[in-house]
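Appendix B: complex inputs.
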Amino acid sequence: MQAEAHRLHRWSWIFIAAGTLRALIVPAIAAIFASGGVLLWRPELLSLLLIVPAGVFGFIRQWVYNYRFADGALVVRDGLLTRNVRQIPYERIHNIALVRNPLHRALGVATVRIETAVGGHPEALLRVLSLEAAEELRRHALSEGRPDAAAEDAALVETPDSELVRLGLISNRGLLVVAAVVGVLTQVDWWRNWLTDQDWLRFYETARDRGPGWLRQLVESGSITSKVLLGVLVFVLFFGLLRLLSIVWYLVRYRGFALRREHDDLRAEYGLLPRVSSVIPVHRIQLVTVTASLLHRWFDRESIEVETAGTSEEESGLTQQLGASGIKLNRQWLAPIVHSERSAGLIRQIMPEVDLEAVDWRPIEARAVGRIVRRVLLVVVPVTLVLTAVLTFAPIPVHGLHGLWLPGVVLPSAWLITRRWVRNAGWALTDEAIFFRSGWPGHQTSVVRFVNVQTASMRQSPFDRRSGMATLTVDTAGAGTIGHRVQIPYLDAGVAAQTLHRLYAECRATDFCW
Amino acid sequence: MDDHEPTSESEETEVEAAEVEAAEVEATEGPAPPAPPPIADGEEHLVDPRSVHVVRLIAVPLTLAIPLLPVVALTLVWALAGLLTVVYLSLLAALLLLAGLGVFIAYRFPAVRHRHLRYRVDPDGLRIQRGVFWRKTIYISVTRVQHTDVSQGPLQRRYGLATLTVHTAGIESASIALSGLEHDVATRLSEHLRPRRARNAG
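Resulting structure:
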């Protein structure tokens, strides 16, 4: 039986053309530069070269592209000269994500990404469908894959703006925004020239003359107190600005974050522009990480992230595009910010086998403190010797013994911090998962279910062997080695070996499925 | 904690199955030589000792080649630009001493490393231990194997050796190589580790 073929939305060519133009933007800029700017004053030439071909390409693509719901698979047909028919089995579809920017919203359409376990790029990219068609596609593909699933609509997480403001205050995102802007600006010549061409002295003088009187006094008095005050003022202003940027970033990116149950899976929707809607298949969650930094703890909040396998950060057109706009494909928020009391319950709701509150935490070896402090000692002692020698023999009126302040301050604080760190680190095994918690003053907790353990390994450095310790590492499929994961240092070697064997047994008894 | 140990009974049946499988492979290849011992014997093994030669054959010439450039440069400076013969000779001696030490290590270390590389195969997976100073033990369950490769370099081919690479879906353990196995052992091991489902899951 041949199922009915569906076409793309009638405005698709605009989006296809826009995509093509975006891909051409670098060559276009290069062409403008190469022509010495002539092209910039000849818009008709530019449009003839770029926009018309892109539009034509868009029309052709829209005309030839279609998809249909066959039995068991989504069939996507593409290509004018080289016909390409791709069959995507419903059960293989991990995620159907809708991406919408303001233009999409104005026209009531969405770009639909169909993702499978094949890493790197979406299996199919439907640019664009009407919302109804997208919904139909989602219903077809996801319900055929999981026939007896019932939809539930209650939101598990809803993040109001006030929480996003808190998240902005907690996070360092503002610094990243500034870094990105500075990075781009230093690469652009005309901006650099503009910066150096400015008469900064006059700018400063104007600002000083027009500014309030107290500020002027502060700047001109030249006393130490006023300099310190000025420094503090600049510092506060700078960090205030960073936090403000951070808040704005989160409000734009995660506006109206909501996590809902959808069949057996979860669907997260968030963002002002673009509005993103993506499915997190619960059984494909490889790793759960709960973060509570010092700032999180001041606000009594936590963040929950999950790593899902299937899409990797390899560079393909769309991943890059999404990556640049800050959407993490692999590590995604389960809840960007949630009250500490709710986080364990939320994880339990989603994965009943992972209960952070019922975990029997076991400590790592307390002897680790001595080892870490000795390592600090190894650095501090030579530095102190050099410092003392320099202070003694340099022609400055400072006594050499002042060099001893360094170990006097560093060693006790290192000892105190390490002791807290070791005491706060912990790990646990339940019947279904392995847990690891570390960090001080902020801390992170990661959980891997046994089903998701790929390999378990144990490492011993020569120092580990001397003190009878080992590091246990649990490897999973997922985003990568950046970020917190289950890697437990300073375990008793015997305990590590035993745990390793247990993990191996659990692996043998279970199947890993994507 | 130890109730997940495989019972000896299931181990036996699995070993038998492996034997039968091996016998079948033999049968298709014509006249059967005496059946090789089962691969999943649960014992610790070293890789083939001839792998030490393979490593030495690469490492020793390489180590010799490294000081060659400074020696030639030094000689040129001495001969053309003028350099005190005493200085030249002492520098040369130092370089040669260094080279000698390098060669000694390049010759000795592969044997030491070979002693510290052990693998154990059981019906459900593989354990590899390696590292002289920094030691690592890794367990790979058959249920997590994505695919396996057996590869042979030209030197390995000369000695009938091979490298087995096991791929998992992990990040750090995406590919785990075990080199210096006898080619036949590597092939059988790769057969044994062919991806399959957990036994109790059907």
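The first strand of chain A starts at residue 5 and ends at 7.
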